[in-house]
Specification:
Layout (H helix, E strand, L loop, with lengths): L2 H20 L17 H12 L20 H9 L9 E6 L16 E5 L5
Antiparallel strand pairs: 1-2
Length: 121
């Protein structure tokens, strides 16, 4: 099997396993600014969208249940996850087909990836 196919399969496997074992969604319901925590910033976004007659705008829509626009049900969903902070991992660097760029501890040009945990949890 060619190396590029192996790397692609490894990346797919890592993605599927992390989603399965953590029960993860990309963001928690109510995380309107995508910072992996539900806090006053999300409440501010929610309030502005609820009071705005045009409703949702930007990447984080406050219509959390996707029904009937922004209402008390959406507020209850945000409140249910209030102050929830989710751990998340980020693949920050990825080196495939490393033939002469970086040497590892054994002075070899290994393929590698770097996983970063920005939350420290």
């Amino acid at each position: 099997m060619p190396g590029a196919v192996k790397i692609s399969l490894l990346a797919l496997m890592l993605t599927l396993c992390s989603a399965h074992f953590t029960g993860a969604r990309l963001y928690t319901v109510g995380d309107l600014n995508a910072d992996h925590k539900i806090d006053f910033k999300d409440l501010q976004i929610f309030s502005l969208q609820w009071l705005d007659p045009s409703g949702c705008f930007g990447s984080g829509c406050a219509d959390l249940d996707g029904l009937n626009g922004i209402d008390m049900v959406d507020f209850a969903l945000l409140a249910a996850n209030w102050q929830d902070i989710r751990s998340h991992l980020v693949i920050s660097e990825f080196m495939a087909r490393n033939t002469n760029t970086l040497l590892d501890g054994n002075d070899e040009t290994s393929d590698w990836l770097e996983i970063y945990n920005p939350t420290g949890r």
